[in-house]
Amino acid sequence: MKVATLTGVINPEDVSITKGVGGIYLKTTYDLMGLLTTDDPLLTVWIERGNGNNQYSCTNIPLKIFAHMSVFGGASMWKTVEGGVTYFHAVCEITQGGAVALEPNDTIKLRLANLDPDDTFIICGMEDPDDIQEILAYDQKTVLTDDVSRNLRVANYGLMAITGALGMSEIRMTLENGRIVSMTPDELRATQVDNDPVLLVQNGVAGHVFHPSIIVVPIVGVAEIEVIKSNLDPVYIYLQTEKSTSPQ
Predict the structure, then answer these.
(1) Cα 104 to chain center, whole Å?
(2) What is the chain's pLDDT, residue by residue, as a tens digit (248 residues)?
(3) Cβ(185)–Cβ(165) under 8 Å?
(4) Are the C-beta atoms of residues 19 and 68 closer than 8 Å to each other?
(5) What's phi and psi for 239, nearest 5 deg?
(6) How much is the CA Rg of the chain, to the nearest whole Å?
(7) Edge-to-edge strands of the sheet including 180-183?
(8) Do 24 and 46 contact (CB within 8 A), yes or no?
(9) DSSP secondary structure of the chain
(10) Distance CA 74, CA 198 (A)
């Protein structure tokens, strides 16, 4: 179901979805495959509860990060040209299967910020016949310019996205069984392509295409990671998990 069309605005009003959905279909002239910049749109998604106990999926996450993580291993991105205008499409899952269960007076809210007023965003809620009491949730960690390395506990997460990979030499993953696996940025990229071979469909042709500055890899079974820096550039880590949405 179509819920909003945004154009000519920088910080639009919040978008409300009053029915439980399992994903967000996004059609936009904004280049989801373009390089990351500090001016990229930001997205916040939450369940606004009638009792005031709101539950957040993500807060001010770069839209490109959200899109590329939420399609990993399942849905694809594709690109079309309509009337001379190029559109990027993505079905962004907000659950692992099923629609977010809503109580009376509950609403799913989306807040987009920092948009280019020349871009158009068409937003639809993808309905599902089954309800689920969980939502995908995101956290962000930063390995700062002065850090030589940083350890992060990731036992409760299933997916990781990395930007600024040129600033690191490798990631050491400590698995739940105690084994340590080291991976360079190239090996992480190879793992991404091996696990999610179809990321973008262009002109009806699927290919091994990935975002040039976002690496997305599964981390199920990983207890801890250590990011080893190679230069002063910061490294940004985004982590995805499932969070219960049972009313509180």
Answers:
(1) 28
(2) 999 999 999 999 999 999 999 999 999 999 998 888 889 999 999 999 988 899 999 999 999 999 999 988 776 788 899 999 999 999 999 998 899 999 999 999 999 999 999 999 999 999 999 999 999 999 999 999 889 999 999 999 999 999 998 889 999 999 999 999 999 999 999 999 888 765 555 566 555 567 888 999 999 999 999 999 998 899 999 999 999 988 66
(3) yes
(4) no
(5) -120, 140
(6) 18
(7) 149-153, 222-229, 168-175, 180-183
(8) no
(9) -EEEEEES-SSPPPEEE-S--SEEEEEESS-TTSPP-TT--EEEEEEE-TTS--EEEEEEEEHHHHHHHHTTTS--EEEEEETTEEEEEEEEESSSSSEEP--TT-EEEEEEES--TT-EEEEEEE--SSEESEEEEEEEEEE-TT-SEEEEE-TT-SEEEEE-GGGEEEEEEEETTS-EEEE-HHHHHHHHHHH----EEETTEEE----TT-EEEE-TTEEEEEEEESSSS-EEEEEEEEEE----
(10) 9
Beta strand 134-143 with 235-244 is antiparallel
The letter for the amino acid at 186 is D
Provide the CATH number for the domain formed by 138-243 in this structure.
2.60.120
What is the residue whose two structure tokens read 């990993």?
72
CA 126/CA 2 separation, integer angstroms: 9
